[in-house]
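Hello Y.,

Per our agreement to keep a running log of every chain we model this quarter, I'm adding this entry. I've kept the format consistent with earlier entries: sequence first, then predicted structure.
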Amino acid sequence: MSMLPGKMEQALSLAVATLAAGVMPAPMERDTDRDDALRKLAAVAGECGWSMATLRSVAGPNADLLFPAGVVEMVEAWSDLCDRTMVDAMRDTPEPRLSRRVRQAILLRLPVDGPRRAAALRGMKVFLSCKGQKAFRRAWVRTVNAIWQAAQDDATGLTYVSKRLTLGAVYASVFLYWLSRGGDQAGLEAFVDRRLADVLRIGRLKARFGAPVATPAPAKG
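Predicted structure for the entry above:
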């Protein structure tokens, strides 16, 4: 990846820590015009970058008016659109097992698609800017919550928070893998399976010994 891994990993760690508050950010503004413009921009963002100039070139001369807060808002809104697309795709899943639904949701959220991954990498450069870091943490919390929503989990209270903390760490490591090596579907699925297996194994240890066990840190590969 053409970005300092340490900076991205630090941002991911802070985003995961934000989940401990158990508070969801306010929903983003949503409408079909914004969604259509984001889809057009995301198709070329990996090559051209996330900018108002590129947005106007692909979505019309007044498209910048859809995102009055600027480029950071645009990337955050795209993340929200990807979350909603994942949730919609999971509505009629026949999978009865929660763990498999979580797996399915993660793979839908991070598809093996070159332009999508390139757009996400360019989007992370926006998120890692000084103006983008709070937006990134909001987007991260929304995504982790959306995965549980897509998986049709109904946890509440402390379990609600602990599940999101655990998944946040898993999703962080999967996200890094996806950005760097996510063009291989079999490899990506195997990595997701290993990370989820780690969580299940730690859960069994907790149940056996009745003591807290640290959530595994994001893996690099």
